[in-house]
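Reviewers of the previous submission asked for a worked example of the structure-prediction workflow described in the proposal, so we include one complete record here. The input consisted solely of the amino acid sequence. No template or homolog information was supplied to the procedure at any stage.
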Amino acid sequence: MNPKRLLFLCFAVAVLAGAGGHAFAQEDQDNQPHIQPRKEEKQKRPAKPSATPQAAQPDAQSPDAQPPDLPLPDAQPADQPQGESSSKDSQIDLTAGPPRGSNVAPSPANEPRYDPHRAEKDIEVGNYYLKQKNYRAALERFHDALIYKPDDAQATYGLAVTQEKVDLFSQAYNSYSKYLELLPEGPDAKEAQEGLKRMESHLSPEAIQSNVAAMAAEDLARGERELSTNEYAAARQSFEHAMRLAPDNPVISFRMAQSLEGLQQPDAARMYYKKYLELQPNGPLARDAKKNISRINDTIGN
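From that input alone, the workflow returned the following structure tokens.
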């Protein structure tokens, strides 16, 4: 072979070998990244729900949460009599509540405050129940009204009518009498007087006298409570009610005199102190009555 040709072939092979190696090296270098990527934080994958979830527990903050074993609000008792209301208002004792609705002081721990607006609502609902002949519920509503607004004439009359409907003649007699004490010329005065006559036909004279004495004692006790807190005008009104029922009760006369003294009416007070002495000259309050009369004489003269 021609030496020049052989030299040319060797040179070509060397060139090709060098170019191929450089290409392989370049390709390998290009496969390596020039900038290392930032390591991404591994995100926490959500836990897969359990195949057998536990029993759902009510969330205390959930509005739909309901205490266990809570009866349905509209559940009808199995032994509910036909024609009776299933509401709580109808599930009370017929004789529940104070006998006259307004004069039994509640316990201090649960003493409600004076709330005429709430009393008005109770009267409205009580009249509705009365028209529906749901007398048990009506009794409770009228009693509640008299707790939040004592001596309310409308509630007293509604209570009297309801008591008569359930044959509580003695209590109805008291309530009719109480209404007439509060509003002698009131819009229901005529009906209350007729109610008293109906109740008298159901009660013996002894029972009526006993009721009258009980009502007078009740008014007297209320007046004495008012007198002890210097509520002289209210006390006088209570003693006036008591005196209409028991005009010959000496204690009522003495307490009336005390309330009038508190109202700066000494002349009228002296008259009732004297009336006490006429009714009970040697009574337990006779000494105080004489002493008070003497003090008034010194102040305003005979």
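Residues 23-28, 49-109 have pLDDT under 50 and may be disordered. We consider this example representative of the routine output the project will generate in years two and three.
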